[in-house]
Design brief:
- By secondary structure, the protein is an alpha+beta fold.
- It has 4 helices and 4 strands; from the N terminus they run E-H-E-E-H-E-H-H.
- Strand 2 and strand 3 form a beta hairpin.
- It is globular and about 40 Å long.
- The termini are far apart.
- The mean pLDDT is 92.
Length: 159
């Protein structure tokens, strides 16, 4: 049984983390592309904005925002379920349910965004955050025109 409680709040950004079972490094290459595809479908279906993300070999962090907290929960449920079906039919792909933390201010949002973009550096996978392909860093801070996955605009939302 999970040791934490997820809270989904209306009109809030949410910092979300999910890990592959046994921390297997399956989210690089085709796994990342499947995850991007599912994120795109889920954000359209549930009217959720993707504000920032990083995909690591065995887990991901994503910051989501929606007018309705239930939409964040539905986004994650759909994304994890569909990714699991594609990556490991029969279930058991994800370690457990995702960890979700509502963010209460722009300062906390920026702190979490910095944390997720620096994740590949802490793991010594790259020297600079812009070197990690599966991250929103280049789009958000370097104005890259062709990221692998494009985040949504979030300048007009209140946190």
């Amino acid at each position: 049984m999970a040791r934490w409680h997820n809270y989904y709040l209306d009109n809030h950004a949410h910092f979300c983390t999910a890990s592959v079972s046994d921390f297997r490094p399956l989210l690089i290459g085709p796994g990342a592309m499947i995850l991007y595809e599912q994120w795109d479908r889920a954000r359209q279906a549930h009217r959720v904005r993707v504000l920032a993300y990083v995909i690591m070999p065995e887990h991901f962090h994503i910051i989501l925002w929606s007018e309705r907290g239930d939409s964040i929960k539905a986004f994650l449920s759909r994304t994890l379920g569909e990714t699991s079906k594609r990556m490991q039919p029969g279930g058991g792909f994800w370690k457990e349910r995702p960890n979700v933390l509502p963010l209460y201010s722009r300062q906390v949002l920026k702190t979490k965004m910095d944390y997720l973009h620096r994740n590949p550096l802490r793991r010594e996978l790259v020297v600079n955050p812009e070197d990690w392909e599966h991250s929103s860093f280049r789009q958000l801070f370097m104005d890259a025109c062709t990221p692998v996955f494009r985040c949504d605009d979030w300048g007009d939302i209140s946190i």
